[in-house]
Structures are given as C-alpha cells and as structure tokens.
Amino acid sequence: MSIQHFAPGQVIDISPYGSDFANAASETLIRESHIEVFRFVLKAGKTTPEHTAAGAITIQCIEGEVELGLGDETRVLKVNNLVYLKANEPHTVKALTDTTLLITILLQRE
Fold first, then answer.
1. How far is CA 44 from CA 11, 22, 47, 76, 93, in A?
2. Are 37 and 109 in contact (CB under 8 A)?
3. Strand 35-42 to strand 99-107: parallel, antiparallel, or no bridges (unpaired)?
4. pLDDT tens readout for residues 61-96
5. 3-state SS track over 10-55
6. Whole-number Cα distances in Å, 19 to 39, 58, 97
7. Phi and psi at residue 29, to the nearest 5°
8. How far is 18 from 70, CA to CA, in rounded Å?
9. 30-39 in b/e burial notation, b at 16+ Cβ within 10 A?
10. From which residue to which does any coiled coil extend (predicted)?
C-alpha cells in the first residue's frame, strides 16, 4: 500500500500544531523524484542521530526551537528561521521545546 502525498496544485496547511501538539506527527507532504518536503515533529529534549540528506536541504522552524548541530558548531533555529545545508552535510537536531520543522530536500538521484 503506497502512502498518499499531496498532489501538484493542492494547498497544504503547514500551520503550527499549538495546543494540539500532543497529537502531532511527522509526515511526508510531497515526494517526487527531484524533491521531498516533510513536516518533522520533535518533542522537547529529543535529538536525532547525526545524519545527512540525499541533496541540498532547507530547514524552516514553524514552531518551537531547536539546536542544529553542524560538526563542532551549533545554531539555534526559532520560529520563522530558515537554514540551508549542502548535500551530504552531517547534522543533528535537538528540540529545545516541542518543535515542528518544514524540511525540503532537493534530491540528486541518478
């Protein structure tokens, strides 16, 4: 069974979960051969293992606050902040508060 994603031209609501955060879940919104867009939900105190993306990415903070680990450096992303990372750049994400991120990956599949 395949997962249904949003179709081209379909409007997608990316509003913060706010008081409904307890019911929030990560989900892929768009998946095509050249692009992937997903909403990533991370509860306060949780951290992703170090990882890379299959292409250049943007990470936009919709709600909450995260610490983005980039090797020996860290950056804090707050609501309305956006960061760009090159393809295959190792990074971690630690939620300082309950957080929702909008992540876009420009895929480089051959």
1. 29, 11, 9, 14, 11
2. no
3. antiparallel
4. 999 999 999 999 999 999 999 999 999 999 999 999
5. CCCCCCCCHHHHHHCCCEEEEECCCEEEEEEEECCCCECCCECCCE
6. 17, 26, 13
7. -95, -45
8. 28
9. beeeeebbbb
10. none
Token digits for 60? 């936009």
Reduce the DSSP state of residue 78 to 3 states and report it. Answer: strand
Domains and CATH numbers, the chain: 24-107 (2.60.120.10)
For residue 25, give both structure tokens. 């879940």
Whole-structure pTM value: 0.90
Q: How many CA atoms lie within 13 A of 41 on its CB side?
A: 14
